[in-house]
Model the fold of this input.
Amino acid sequence: MKTQATSQDVARLAGVSQSAVSRCFTAGASVSEAMRDKVQEAARKLGYQPNAHARSLITGRSRIIGLVLSHIENLFYPAVLEQLAQRLQQDGYHLLIFISDGHNADDLVGEILQYKVDGIVLGATTLSSALAQRCADASIPVVLFNRIMAAGSAGSVSSVRSDNLGGGREIARFLVAGGHRRIAYLAGREDSSTNLERERGFREGLAEAGQRIYARAIGNYDVLQARQATRDLFAQAEQRPDAVFVASDQMAIAVLDTLRHELGLAVPQQVSVVGFDNVPQAAWESYALTTFEQPVQPMVEATVELLQSYLRGGAMPNTRNIVIAGQLVLRGSCQNRHQESTT
Amino acid sequence: MKTQATSQDVARLAGVSQSAVSRCFTAGASVSEAMRDKVQEAARKLGYQPNAHARSLITGRSRIIGLVLSHIENLFYPAVLEQLAQRLQQDGYHLLIFISDGHNADDLVGEILQYKVDGIVLGATTLSSALAQRCADASIPVVLFNRIMAAGSAGSVSSVRSDNLGGGREIARFLVAGGHRRIAYLAGREDSSTNLERERGFREGLAEAGQRIYARAIGNYDVLQARQATRDLFAQAEQRPDAVFVASDQMAIAVLDTLRHELGLAVPQQVSVVGFDNVPQAAWESYALTTFEQPVQPMVEATVELLQSYLRGGAMPNTRNIVIAGQLVLRGSCQNRHQESTT
Done:
C-alpha cells in the first residue's frame, strides 16, 4: 500500500500554508477561489483525501447518525429511511445502518457507540433503561422513532411518533358512523407501543358509541400471521364481522387478499377494511385501502430537529415525546352500511 | 463536556496493562473472563468507549462500507439494503447511506472518500471514469450493484448484476410459446444498463421466432410515466397488443392497475403482462405477476465476496463483472393464447 499524502504534502506542493489546506476542506470556511483551485489541484495530484475520522477526533464530530432498523421490507420504513437519509445529508450527516432482530438492541447500541456517532435513531426497538443511561452518560442523543419507552421504564429517551391514539379513535368513529355493528380488530405486536396506543384509541372510540370490539385476533405485524388471523376472524359465516380495523397497512393488504381471493368475500360490499400507516401501496387501485396516515415527512423533520438541537447547542435536549397529527385517508375499502341495514 | 476517559484511565482503575484493555475491546482477541469482567467494570464506571475512529487511524480500517442509493422506495431496493446490511453486519461492517438523485454521483463519492470507507457499493448510479480512477488510486474497492459501466468508458469497476440479457430472451420465448403475436415492450430508463440488456435479450428472443417488438413505449422506471405509456400502447382498440413485457415490476404493477381499473381490459384474458425483478409485491394475489427474478441473496453475497476479497487480502481484486442467473416465475398475469387463436 502506498503512503498516503498528508495535508503537509499538499501544502508544500500548492505552496500554501497547512491551515489554508485545512480551510479548503472545511465546509463553510473562508477561502479564495484561486486558493481553493491551487489546493484542490495539488490534492488531486497527490491523491490526498482529508480524513473525516481524523477530523472527528479533533472536532469530536463524526457526522454519522446511527440508525437501528429491523424489517426494512416493512412497507412503512423505506420512505422513512430515504427521507431521513436525504434530510440529514443536506446538513452533511449520514446514516450508519444497524439491523436489529428486535432482541439485540442493547448489543447494537453498544456497537454504535464505538463508532462515536453524533446521534442515534431507533426505528426498530426501544432501549433498556440501562443503555439509555449509557447513551446519556456518553452525551449521545437518542430518538425513538415510531415508538416510545415502555411505560414505567426508568430511563428517559426522546421520541417521535404519530397520533396512534387519535388515529385509533377516529377509525372507530368512522366505522360506527358508517353503520357497522360487528367491528373486529386485528392486532399488531401486543408489546409494541404502536399497537397498544392504536387499540386503546380504537376501544375508546367504540365505547363512545356504546360498542366494543366484536372479535379480535393477533397478526403480530406479520403477513402470514395476519392471513391466519383473518381466517380465524371470518371462520363463521353467520355473524361474521362487517368491518375490521387492521393495525398496519402491510397486514391490511394481506387481509384484503385473503378475504377476496381465499375466503371469497367482497370488500367493501360484505366487509369494510381499514389500515394504519398510509404506505404507498395502500393507494394502489387493486387495494384502494382506507387508512390512517402516519405523515413521514413531518415525523422525519421532528426527528432531525431533536438531533440538531443537540448538535447545534452541544447540550442535551430535554426529553421530549413529540406526537405528529395524522389524518384518515378515505379510499374504496369501506362502505356505508346504513342503506343496507334498512332493507 | 466532561473529559473522556482513556484506555490508560481504565487500565489504572482495573489494575491491568493498557494492552490488556485494548485486547478486551478487540473482537477475537484472547483474554480471560476474569480480565474481561475487571476491565468492563472499570470501563463502565469511567464511561469509557473504545473509539472506532481512533482505531481506524491505527489499523486503516473504518469498518464502514459506503452505499449510494436513489429511490429506496423502488420496490427492488428495500430487500437489497436489508440483506446487504445484515450480511455485512455479520462480519462487523456497517453501511453508511448516501442518497443520489442520479446526477450527483461524483460529488457523493468524493464525500464518501472523506469518511475513509473500506469499500463502496453503488446501487444508484455509475461512476465517471475519472472518479473510478480516484477510488482505485485511494485503494478503495468499488462494486456497481445491478448496473455496469457505460460501454466505452475508460475506467474499470467491478459489478454484480443479474442475467438481464438472458431474462429478456427467456421472456420473449415464453410469450411467443404462449401464442402471443402482438408483443409490446414498455422500457425503463433508456440510458440504464438494465434496460439496454433486458431489451436486447428480448429483441433477440423475439427474432428467433421471426417476431419483433410490436409496439414500444417508455416508462423510465417511473410509475406515472408507466401509466401514460400504457395508455399510449393500448390507445387503439383494434390490433392492440396481446402481451406486454414491462422492464420492472414496479412499473408492471402500475400497468396492471391501469389496464384493469382505467382501461377496463382483463388481465390475462385480453392482455398478458410480464415484469422483471420479482419484488415481494409481485406475489400479492391481486397482481400475481409473472416476472423474471433478480435473486437478491446471491447478488448480495457476490457483492460482499468482492469487497471481502479486498478487505481480507489488502490487494485490489481484478475487475470482475459477475452475472447471477435468474429464473422466470410463473403466476397468473399471462395466458396461453393458442386455444383462442383457433376459434
Notes: The mean pLDDT of chain A is 87. The radius of gyration of chain A is 26 Å. Residues 296-313 of chain A form the longest helix (18 residues). Residues 205 and 327 of chain A are 15 Å apart (CA to CA).
